[in-house]
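ERR on first pass: missing label on line 2. Operator R.T. fixed the label and resubmitted. Corrected input:
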Amino acid sequence: MDFREGMEHKYRELLENYIKDQSEQALYAGQKFSRKTIEHKISPEEIVSLHKSLLVEMHPELPKDVIDSFDLLLEVMMGYGLTYRENESLRSKQAELRSEMEIAANVQQTLLGTTIPEVDGLDIGAISVPARHMNGDYYHFVQDENNCISVAIADVIGKGIPAALCMSMIKYAMESIPENRLGPGSILENLNRIVEQNVDPSMFITMFYGLYNPETNILSYASAGHEPGFYYNAAEKSYAELKAKGLLLGIEKKTKYMNYEKQVSPGDMVILLSDGVTECRTDEGFIERETLVGYIDKYIHLSAQEIVNKVFKDLEKLQNFQLRDDFTLIILKRKV
Amino acid sequence: MNLTIDTKKTDSLLEITLNGEIDAYTAPKLRDTIFPLSEKNGIKMIIDLSGVSYMDSTGLGVFVGVFKNVKANGGHFQLNGLSGRLQRLFEITGLADIIDVNRQIEGEAK
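pass 2 clean. output:
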């Protein structure tokens, strides 16, 4: 190793300089030297040992006691050296894990990828942002051969990697259900059976499932314990809660889910969200659902995608850019 | 952010008082403390939540897990002192229909 060979010579020079005039400059050179030795993973006890052998060489007249004392110092320093090396190896392991997490997050995005369908007469906007690396929120759009659009929004209770892995399973379960022949309630009943059988008993999923028929402009929907969305009535310029009752997925095998229907008029909007949206916390407390409606209303003249983007930016700012929970907001707007 | 857990046990009745916040950081502690207690046959577990200022869905997960376990062992599980916000959380998720939940009596406007 090149550095080790030159190190002895360099340290001798530093030591000689310092003993000669005890200048600040010589001390500073010592600091620079230690940065180099750290970089080259030289242990503290190696430095002490070098110091001792150089002293003996340069000042053979030194009392034996002083020289011997370095052996004790060397022994003491050994513990520091070990800790330092452990720390270094943990640090590199951590960097490795971090890069694996990033890869996992990318894989998740690919696995859970969904595209917002293009439908005549319907303007759709969606945003989903994870609080940490991986997203426990999920949304999914499917367009069938009759142009019906189904939209699912879900939140896995439990955060981080386990939640994200669980979501991937749900997506594949959803894709294997022949949805266009079933109503939202039956789809949730099917998913409930799958989740109940396969997922860890302390993990649960909330889901809202909607089916929009652009021919009749009827939205039929069902909810499995999901945070209720909103319905915007354009004629009355009013917002109402999109009420639906149903138990979380994965709790009881034989749970039934009711179907609800809503006739959607031109300009009306269906607003779906995850509880991260209403559980946003600011310094003054929680954001009330009414506040959220206020934000949406502020941007109501914009396209659905612009509304969700701007509402997210506003809520993010309100929380000082620190998301506490995953955030998902979807808007379906019937064009005028 | 912290959570204190006090347990009081008399015969088959187990009263647990929680104070603080239940979130992703405190939920593991809660789970580790109360889950083993739910294993006992025919236990009556009453949890007082009136001192809980915040709870997210992770806390909900803990309670559901414990509830299922208590039920499987022929016991009874009850949550008391829910704030309006917590009550709403249990109603939205449909859990209020299967778990015995009771609202805060003192200091509530309605």
